[in-house]
Amino acid sequence: MLTRVHSLTIVYTVCSLVCLTLVLATTAQAQSSTGEFQRILSEKAAFEPSDFAALEQGQTIVKLTPINDKREVAACGLVTVRTSADQFLRSYIDGMTRSNKTVLEAGRFASAPSVADLQQLTIEHGDIEDLKECVAGDCKIKLSAAMIERFRRDVNWNAPDYAVHATALLKTMLVEYVRDYIARGPSALIEYHDKRDQVRLADEQQALGSASGYLNDSLRGAGSNMRVVEDTIIWSKVKFGLKPVLIINHVRAYKYDRDNGPQVLVAQNQIYANHYFTGSLALTAFVNVPGAMSPYLVYENRSRADGLVGPFSKFKRSVIESKSVEGLKSILEHSKMSLEGKAGHNAAETVVAVHQSSAWGQRLFGGIRPLLWVLVVSALIALVVLRRIENVRVPIKPTRIDTRGKIL
Fold it and tell me: How confident is the model at residue 242 (pLDDT cuts 50, 70, 90)?
């Protein structure tokens, strides 16, 4: 009997040790994975231990990240979400062309783009009037030199229906541009010549895409295990106070499976904007990390604008960065609520309320508030798909300066 009990004791002891070893090994692996995730974010976006502690308590963390150009603003945001990768991806795809109070109009280009894809797009009267005076190097609409010349050559500005013809020509040129981009890729990207110094969007994209970042590095290292589940070009007319902005983005969504669960990464490259922006890359990801209590929604944005240089640039940047962090944090918090089915109101309404209290900004140097959204213009477009989250813009009169900071 004693021998039997002794044998059973040995068996139980061995089993217990084996189980304990497995638990410790699993815990160590999880801690290593979570630790690696935190280490990379600390390195790429200056996250601190206190930030991760706050994150685990359900708080939202947003950090400004290093920039490579004085026209640039960049940030990284992080929040935990209790939802599935499939739900996140479905919400994103379903909302890409959804209009609301801020995204006034939106649509998708077909695989063979045609003018019919822009049927719902309306062109602002003020933009048409500005086109009358456009010359290469001095135009209030962002266009290439060839586009500007076509407006001067092909539109009879003395005709009573010049607005109809100018609208039709602009839509035709945008469709031709998108077709060329689909055929030739980045080599077809526009070269803006609205100001004296031309800006090649291909160069802007190259610079933005080569910048170091948690998601940016993942995108550059995308392997064969990442499946493209969405590849499309969308256009959006975004409310920007007194001057709505027409933006065209190339959107790619990737999904890849890991032992700890599926991951989703969505990249939005801006291939055209008719005001303010010379380039933008927005990355949004649903990330499962071994050992974490719940998945993460990670967001990175790096944008360039021609209003971030020139007089009072340091002051403008300090205000822009402060408001950008504030706005992104609000948006991510409400994205979390929306994805988790807890939202009782629209996220954009909260952000609007926050920024309506900042009317003083309109009186500073001709107004600088649209630049407060240099960072989040693509962010909002990316996040609008998360259950009716709306992009928020604030108006200014842009300073007429070139990319080197000289007044035109």
Answer: low
Instruction: Count how many domains the chain has.
Output: 1
Which residue in 148, 116, 117, 126 sits closest to 135, CA to CA? Answer: 148
Q: For residue 223, which phi and psi values (nearest 5 degrees)?
A: -105, -170
User: What torsion do the CA atoms of 118, 122, 126, 130 make, to the nearest 10 degrees?
Assistant: 20
The answer to the question of residue 156 being in a domain is: yes
> Each residue of 263-317: pLDDT tens digit?
899 999 999 999 988 999 999 999 988 878 888 999 998 888 877 776 777 777 7
CA dihedral (138, 240, 297, 285) in degrees, to 10, reads: -40
Residue 26 within a domain: no
Give the domain extent around 240.
49-383
Distance CA 140, CA 126 (A): 10
| Residue 251 φ/ψ region, left for φ over 0, alpha for ψ in the -120 to 50 degree band, beta for the rest | beta
Q: Tell me, yes or no, whether 283 lies in a domain.
A: yes
- Give domain status of residue 241, yes or no: yes
Judge whether 281 and 272 are in contact, CB under 8 Å.
no
